[in-house]
Amino acid sequence: xxxxxxxxxxxxxxxxxxxxxxxxxxxxxxxxxxxxxxxxxxxxxxxxxxxxxxxxxxxxxxxxxxxxxxxxxxxxxxxxxxxxxxxxxxxxxxxxxxxxxxxxxxxxxxxxxxxxxxxxxxxxxxxxxxxxxxxxxxxx
Length: 140
Hints:
Layout: H1 5-11, E1 15-22, E2 28-40, E3 43-50, H2 55-62, E4 65-71, E5 82-93, H3 96-107, E6 123-135
Antiparallel strand pairs: 1-2, 1-4, 2-3, 3-6, 4-5, 5-6
């Protein structure tokens, strides 16, 4: 699925997001992640990076259904705009330090020293966008 321009603008070169995965018992596991947007011939997808095999990585490997929420910053709106995405994820080995370095340039203070120079290759979670909702022009 291709996101519309307003959703793409909200994500920009990177965004803070909540990622919801499913625990083995079906309960939700929520974590805050950085996301990047990538366009492929099949449509847009979200990418997030992890240096270790964290719970969210294990959950996605077992059950690929995920939900992502990205908050807008329009304080003049009656309700804060947010982009809600339901998706299907898979985990790719390697590439985490490079993606994190790109995202840290946008989302973290300069000189943060993250990711560390000796970071492991880590994992990329790639999220295919199946459904878009939330509050904003992308949901009109």
